[in-house]
Amino acid sequence: MTKKQERDRARRRWQKQQATLAARAERRDRTKRVAAIVATVAVVAALVGGLAVALKPEEKEEAAPSTTVAGCEQPPAPLGTAAKLELPDKATAKATTWTATLTTNCGDIVLDLDGAKAPQAVASFIQLAKADYWLNSPCQRLGVGEGFKLLQCGDPTGTGSGNPGYGFGVENAPKDGTYPRGTVAMARTQDPVKGNGGQFFLVNGETTLPDPNGYTIFGTITKGLDIVDKVAAAGVQPGGESETIGAPNAPISILRVAVTEKKA
Fold first, then answer.
1. Domain interval for residue 9
2. Which part of the chain is the PPIase cyclophilin-type domain (predicted)?
């Protein structure tokens, strides 16, 4: 083999090696480019997906079925606390008449309070109203039976056992145990001497309560009795005291109470 032939062979080997190296380099570059493209696509997809999630309308939690009646909003949760107040002097309300507005989730219920006939009950009511005692307070007991038609309210704990930290006795109870439609009377424990506190009932149909000591009548409903009627028409929840006495099916809460003295 001549020197020229050796040089030609060496040149062909070198060219082949270079071609192989170039092919390897091209494959490496192609792999890198593909990987970069895949990574870019993944990043873009993630960004687009994240943006889609960010822009997607927030899914609302499925609300519990509402049992409210027409004209009523869902009431707020009760604060769950009572109070420790001192019994006010009944002279605060003696011989005066007051207007109380119960703002509820179903509208306003307006009362006339008779400080002449039930000064202690009215003085207590005024104090509790001014102290925001009934803030977000549910009416926890409803009676829809014959001769027992009333809505009991006034316990901010929502349990029926809360009190303002004091008690007082019965005033102005009817001798025949009859409470006409539109009556506002104190609810109490079995103790007629100190059983009254912050709870009261709104009578929406003639009611007979045979307790010999009676219940203090301290006012009348002048506006909003139709609200009580509407709540009563929805009935009571099962599992109460009876088929006609229990928590109202249509929830109603006192949101706040305002009182003003009526001028003669």
1. 1-59
2. 107-259
